[in-house]
Hints:
By secondary structure, this protein is of the alpha/beta class.
Amino acid sequence: MMHELPDDFRWDADAVVIGASAGGIDALLTLLEAVPAGYPLAIVALVHVPEARDSRLAEVFAPRLALPVREAAAHAPVTPGTVFFAPNGYHLLVEPDRTFSLSCDPPVLFSRPSIDVLMESCADAYGPRLAGLVLTGASEDGARGLTRIRARGGLAAVQAPQEALHRIMPMAAVTRANPQLVLPLAQLAVLLQRLGARR
Length: 199
């Protein structure tokens, strides 16, 4: 487990999945605003929003990012160079053919969409060519999903709990998933850019 990003750290990935909850919008903006146009990886993000409320995350983020931003839709392909947000009220999954699907299964850890459900499906679809990030949050959602990413040979990274607005989610991920990297947001932003660096 590394607490500083090595200068020579590299990882070959096709997609990045990011989970956050309380305090996650600001943290996610810090990460995604640093991603340049032409970034070659798909980014799938899930931020917990109260289920009774429509998610407007794609609308909020689109004007501020260099990449195209979409709300994920059933049967749509997970296309590179795009940021996808999970719609509210459904579990979001990535199928083995790397298309999205939606599920009405019961909430997991009181959340639907669930970070665990999304990350587990991404781990199965991408294997070692996946990077998973868990950010600030006030539940333990994401710890199980990040564990699956590690088990499938992917990269697991967590926001340093001491700087997170809410520490419960990153602490659970650190404790249960044994991630390779536990970094402050500024270094996670550098990591995200490196994952998309052309080789």
